[in-house]
Amino acid sequence: MRTDFQTPATCTNIALHNLYPGEIDLVISGPNHGRNSSAAFAMSSGTIGAALAGALSVPIEGPPSQASLHVHNMPSIAVSYGVVTRPVPEGCMEMAADIAVEVCRRLFEDWGWEDAEHKRPVQLYSVNIPLVPEHLAPENRRVCFTTLYRNTYGKLFEETDKITNDVYNPTQHRGPQPERHDGQLRFEFKPSFQKILNPDPKDVPKGTDAWAFQNGYTSVTPLRAAYGEVGAEGSGFGDKSDIGLFWDLLCLVDRVQDVTLEHEDEVEPEREQGQAELSGVGPNTSGLAIDEHGLDDELEEREHASGKVAEDGADAEPARVLDEEVQRHLRQEVEQLDAAEMQRGQLPERTNCNEG
């Protein structure tokens, strides 16, 4: 089989949807000759990527998706062998294969659920088997469910003067020789994995896949095809509701109101008018948002008075929903009030919440 993008994930999707649509009961990726325990390895693993692709390859409704036996879930397992010494001791591969087959069989027969209510089945599993003879022996084999050990990998590349022609080109196996330029910056993949491969045992929490590997156990880690969702309950701000924790995007308006009340004698009448025009702001059923209807009504009345809006039934151009001059005026008023408060040292400098 030839494709323009030959990756493990590509193979999974093509097999499920093009070669054997509706015929596959279980996706097994691997075995990879190298561990994929801990976040640093798992997040960059093509083996786990292929299992993720299986979990995500459930057909959506309607064409062009093909029929599938698994409408809601495609069971997928990533199998990795953790190499500890090289060359791998004799007999390790055969014993590891026996364990892998047994683990996959047991999982397929009793797949498991993400929750106690059995509402969502587990999407995929990552299995890591250490290639250590004494731990692979039938009398010593131990398998345990684990969680993913959270770690980092730091620096991965070193600067080099070496020229390589292995330039990636999706339509060719090898790209053209790059031209040499004085001062051109080049890097090569040269990681230092010592601390990742052999972390201090006291730093590795019990029950994680890295802990299991250190103890010679085969780890079985249930995963979902999504980046880890951190609960919003731990965030330092936001308003709780029955559907989520919402940001208060009206803090600017609240600050302006506080400034207006506290320094009423310093605020000119036209600024108070600008503050009143911001009063049409409030929450809706989907969270905190700006309610433009009150502001629109006020603007429409102004435009009627100035002759910009025709009466009902008259032949005239449609009224503009927002008057740019009024918008600019309101923004200027808010900026002036903020500037005055920052000079007094009572208001921190505002940042753009939409950046990044």
UniProtKB/TrEMBL annotation:
This protein's GO CC annotations: P-body
Source superkingdom: Eukaryota
GO MF, one annotated term: hydrolase activity
Region feature (Disordered): 263-321, 336-356
Biased composition annotated in UniProt, kind: Basic and acidic residues: 301-321
Domain Survival protein SurE-like phosphatase/nucleotidase: 7-153
Name of this chain's protein: Survival protein SurE-like phosphatase/nucleotidase domain-containing protein
Organism, scientific name: Trichosporon asahii var. asahii (strain ATCC 90039 / CBS 2479 / JCM 2466 / KCTC 7840 / NBRC 103889/ NCYC 2677 / UAMH 7654) (Yeast)
Organism phylogeny: Eukaryota, Fungi, Dikarya, Basidiomycota, Agaricomycotina
